[in-house]
Design brief:
alpha+beta; 2 domains; three-stranded antiparallel β-sheet; 6 strands; Arc Repressor Mutant, subunit A
Amino acid sequence: MKLYPLLTDKDAINLLKALYDNEVLEKKSYTTKLSDVGSKARLKSRGTEAAEKLSSYNLIALDSVDNDYIMSITNRGKEFIEIFDQLVELMNPKSSGQRSISIKYELTNHEKKILILTYKMSKESGSDFIPMKMLVEELYPVNQAGKSGVVSRCISKLEEIGLMERQKQGRKTLVCVTEKGFKTIRQQYLKGLMH
């Protein structure tokens, strides 16, 4: 069975969409009279040809009663409209012209620990910026040899995504948690790691 005659019949598509909305979205009833749904579907004609066409494609169940049709959308009809809506959305993208892309960056346990510890230490000291050396000592109380490079690389990654900031003060390197970093702690990690 060819789809072209169905896809080019605006009345049939609008009628099927109205039946779908009536049953699935509005959850009104499983059956509807053609005379009741005709105005909602904005049909150009009486709608009998559109209803018969939909029935021939097994997209609706159709019964003739008292010079009117009683219709209900089939599962196949529901699937058809859902896929049709996806096609319409694909062909008419949002006004920005591009589909939105979301990037999710999952922090490693070490990065989480550095972020939380920096925040805690800055709150305890009363200053936004804390010396990186102090952070390394807190992270590695026993053996700090070579650990400052590891911590520095993690802080660089956190800087790239805007969660931490670093500045030089003479020979000291100072680090702090940014507002975005604080929000990240509060939203995702505060409950699990602070308690």
